Amino acid sequence: MSSALSFTVTGSGSPVLILHGLFGSAVNWRRIADGLSDWGQIFSVDLPNHGNSPWTDDMSYPTQAEVLADFISAEVPDSPIVIGHSMGGKVAMTLALQHRIPLGGLVIVDIAPTAYSHSHAPLAEAMKKLDLNAIQSRRDAETRLEQAIPEKALRQFLLQNLRSTSHGLSWRINLDVIHRQMEALTGFDIAPGQCDVPSLFIYGTQSDYVTPQATSTILKRFPKARLLAVEGAGHWLHAQKPDVLIQAFQEFADSLLISSVPRSAM
């Protein structure tokens, strides 16, 4: 059986999955994947409606987790450690809470198992309103988005999803479904329960995604979780502090290997 999801593989050794956030793709995590390739075999996945993966009509977390479970069964050996950022973190948490796929561990980047009041719907709306037939280049698109999305770095990140085809420019993300299901994506409508998979929740101190209240929720649902705050980082921790994230992962993953060694072997 082969997987419907697009993915790349680097390195060798213990399996690690990387799941990007909303509007992202595996490409955004290339720096992290390369940095971890000496440690293990890194599977960088495009989630549904993103990157080069197929488009679907349902982006709820249970549905995305089911697709991911099928991917793991088809493509990934042993019990992988799953790294998930933002939306990808919620997919990873849903997988751990609702499926019996054996996991070696979770590394959740700047997100918690809770609903958020903010919405990224205005970003999707601004992108949908672009008349791609009247745009010749990504630079043209950036100029037209400047008023709706003033932050340059955010505009450039979003426009990585604009690709040139033989028929002109097109979006590689499914903006219609993302916009329609934004409430589900900012929420976390997952049945109550706990997961005993060893977990590392790493977050930026300049981000408001992991608050003291969210920390309480994390520990209720993931009682084996460790929390690590990274000074000077915001929500895009993997881009702002990649070396810190790589080191934190390696220390966490190495600790899992040590704890799995029988005492008689020490």
Describe this structure in words.
With 266 residues, the protein is α/β, with parallel strands linked by helices. The protein folds into 2 domains: 189 residues, Alpha/Beta hydrolase fold, catalytic domain (Rossmann fold); 60 residues, no CATH class. It has 11 helices and 9 strands. The strands form 2 sheets. The protein has a 7-stranded mixed sheet with strand order 1-3-2-4-5-8-9, sandwiched between helices. Strands 6-7 form a two-stranded antiparallel sheet. The chain is globular, with a radius of gyration of 18 Å.
Write the layout of secondary structure elements.
Layout: E1 7-10, E2 14-19, H1 30-36, E3 40-45, H2 61-75, E4 81-85, H3 87-98, E5 105-109, H4 121-129, H5 138-145, H6 152-158, E6 162-165, E7 168-171, H7 175-180, H8 182-186, E8 199-204, H9 212-221, E9 225-230, H10 237-240, H11 242-260
Parallel strand pairs: 2-3, 2-4, 4-5, 5-8, 8-9
Antiparallel strand pairs: 1-3, 6-7
User: Helix/strand-derived class?
Assistant: alpha/beta
- Mean model confidence by pLDDT: 93
What is the N-to-C order of secondary-structure elements (H for helix, E for strand)? EEHEHEHEHHHEEHHEHEHH
Total DSSP helices: 11
**Major sheet strand order:** 1-3-2-4-5-8-9
Which descriptors apply to this entry?
disordered C terminus, 9 strands, 11 helices, 266 residues, alpha/beta, Rossmann fold
Give a quick rundown of the structure:
This protein is an alpha/beta fold.
